[in-house]
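Sample entry (375 residues):
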Amino acid sequence: MKTWYLILSALFACLASAQAQTNDTEARVAYMEAMNAYGNGQFSSALSSLEKVKKLLGATNPRVEYLLAKTYFEVRDFTAAESHIGEYFKLAAEDDANYNEMVMLVVNIKQEKERIEQERIRAEQKRKENERQLQAKLEAQRKEESERAAARRQEEQRQLEAYKKEQETWNSAKSKNSIKWYKFYLSQYPNGIYNMMAQKKIHILKGKFIMYAYENERPLGLSFGALNHNRISFYFNFRVNKDIFTATSYGGINDANQIDCDHCGYYVDTKESKYGRLAASAGIAFKIKYPVWIYLGAGVSKSQLFEKVVYDEDYFEFTKEPDLVEEWMANSDHKKITSFPELGLQVKIANILILKYGVYRIDKFAHQFGIGFRI
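Predicted structure, serialized as tokens:
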């Protein structure tokens, strides 16, 4: 029985030794793979291979910890790198070939961590500076916007006050309804809201007109002037009849049948006659109540008698056959210039049409009419 026990123990020892040799061989292969992966920059593969080595060996050693530390350093996992450096120093002797490199790795890790910390500090400072600048920019924008808003409110308030003031001036002009006040509005607000309306009002208030005037003895007449709403206006009339242009000779005649003509010989009075008449007047007009104006004026009239005579133009040449000529001559004994008064009403219709009726007295009372329009 004891013999069999010894045999089995020896057998198991041989098997364990063989398995250990196999694991050691695989571990060596895995370590070489890790070194190749590290050399090629394939750090994840290197770490996997190194973990496989530790599993195959069932433990670790300085060479494994050395390569783990360097690999973690390359992937910037300084905490893991420092951990494996610590394991390395526990396992390795100071005369180990990689000892000094591990010491330098500690220094490099420290420098790297300091550099990273400095970069972090600079990044944090830059972030804070950017935040400060952004905050300052936002504050400046808010301030600028606030100032613009305040300027807009001030401008709106100024425009509102200007509008109120202009409105008050316009309301005053409308209530006064005078040319003076409308002109004052235009002088204060040449580009004002009511500019066109003020000009129209002035035009209406001035009320300039032209009119055809008629009366029985002088049917051809022209009248022009103005009908102002709130002040005295002026007008002028001129009236004639067509017979005023009758005279065809520079000569004249009188009631004694004496003819004033150097080239006229024997003549005959035909007893045909007609009066030519003209009159000119001027005056003032003022509003009674819209749309009625009363006018009052005075003028001068002229009347002239023209007589038709027939004379022999060749009388002084002693010809047998007379050369008879007919002419109208003014009778110097029937020329009359008279002053006269006139009075009447003028009515404005729709601020466009103007009608007139009045009376005047020269030798007797007579009527005059007119129709015209505003200009």
